Amino acid sequence: MKRFSSTFLLAVVIIVCLIILKLQFIYFDNRNVTSEKNSKVNGNSKSKEPGKHLSFKANDNPVSDFDKSHYNKKYFKNSKNLRFMNTKYSDIHTTDFIPRDSYGNEIKNILEYRKEIYSKNYISEEHRWVEEISPWTWKFKGEKYQNSQIIKKKSNEKTQIAVLLVLVRNSEIENMIYTIQKFEKSFNSKYNYPYVFLNDVPFTPSFMKSLVKFTSSNLTFGLIPKAHWSLPENISKLFMVESFNQLKMNSVPYGDSESYRHMCRFYSGFFYKHPLLQEFEFYWRIEPGVDYFCDIDYDPFLYLKENNKLYSFVISIKELPTTIYSLWIHTLKFAEKYKISSSLFSFFSTKNKNYNLCHFWSNFEIASFDFYRSSEYESYFEFLDRTGNFFYERWGDAPVHSLAAGLFLTKDQLHFFSDIGYKHDDFYHCPQIDSLPQSENSNKSSYTLNYCKCPPNAFVVNDVSFSCLPKFKSFKSDEIWTPSSFKNNLVFHLKNNQFKYPGIPQLYADRMSWRDKAIY
């Protein structure tokens, strides 16, 4: 009898433990789990001290071979670990569009659901993000060629593990349809790469139903985790509003926009961590309303892969100085602290070693995720994020990406797609066929070379005074920025610049200076 009682009691204890684990959503996977405490956050978790996992070597380019040891993608690649995330591409016409939790219960209020998610313990933040976004993740098959023959790529060409990445709002459906139509005609109808659409709020059924009609590719619609689109804990809202008002008074574009800052911060340090993007090696960033003019009869992803390129662009111009007052000096601080050497950084400097404002426009990017998932890039972003200046100033993701490339890459790892016609806002890049590198036009027919219809009145920015393309084309990696170079320039700027913000009252400038100097 005693033995039976003991066995029964043990069984009850085991059942209770299992119920507690289930209720608390504590998951375990096949990774080695450290002895650190489970994170419990409100919005954002506290950042670890930047650079702790860094593997820099003095007087050596730190990214000749990326250190990916801190970033394990096996969790995402194994669909079993996605718990209840839908991994199949469905028929949009048979979908009820009802978000459900892991038990199949309908979610009535996204705010309450997120509040619950961020009050629980998880073995990792990745688990939390998956649980958070899964009810609003929808995967569909494109319908354009369901009743006709799909245009096929050349039989001897390979496709890469790549994605077409779009950040878009529900209200931008008309611009999105326009861009998808142009992009499909120009490139993707031949290659059928999948799309991933992201939004900080759930996509509406009408938005999703509208887009599936214009491509034969697979489409995934997903939600951005709250932690990737909310104010960090270290941000003073009072100080932020004061900064917004001042930048608006100074006519800085998006000077008082919080949502624009969330977008820039997301593209600076979070997009490559999104659960829906972990299976991919490359991405092509697309934005609603942009235009493509040329027939692209080869695979840019394959070109980057075969030529060991990690980042590419079509437009390079100078940034507005009023948006990035202290980005340069914080970049110098980072490089000096971690003793970086770079053969590319001089591309971004003037003769007196100040920032020349050159950057690669990130609204068109074709790049490797490995660049962003490296410990080097992650540490750079964490360093910048601790300043708060994505919100106090108006740092864009384009100069952040560009200066990171300057710190960690070589010119040989970058590529200018001179043969891709592109328009964003009023700025155009229109290929001049005669000036294309031989590697880009040797395999093109005369028909293809001439089929690039940019408008005759297009404002082409290739050779305007604020373009950085001439400098990039002629740039040679003769000057190496060593750790001592970064240190000397940092000392010079701290001594002479004192963070003078043009047009801002002196008291405000002094507060900015004190804050920036006190952070590190």
CATH superfamily: Spore Coat Polysaccharide Biosynthesis Protein SpsA, Chain A
The rounded Rg comes to 25 Å
Q: Which structural class do you get from the secondary structure elements?
A: alpha/beta
Largest sheet: 8 strands, mixed
Determine the CATH topology: Spore Coat Polysaccharide Biosynthesis Protein SpsA, Chain A
Number of domains: 1
Q: Write the CATH architecture name.
A: Alpha-Beta Complex
* Unreliable spans: 22-84, 147-155, 445-450, 503-507, 514-520
Helix content: 25-40%
Mean pLDDT: 81
What is the CA–CA distance across the termini?
Answer: 67 Å
Task: State the name of the first-level CATH class.
Answer: Alpha Beta
The general outline is globular
Residue share in β-strands: 5-15%
Tally of DSSP helical segments = 19
Strand order of the largest sheet: 1-4-3-2-5-10-7-11
Number of strands: 13
Keywords: Glycosyltransferase, Membrane, Transferase, Transmembrane, Transmembrane helix
GO biological process, one term: cell wall mannoprotein biosynthetic process
GO molecular function: alpha-1,2-mannosyltransferase activity
Protein name: O-glycoside alpha-1,2-mannosyltransferase omh1
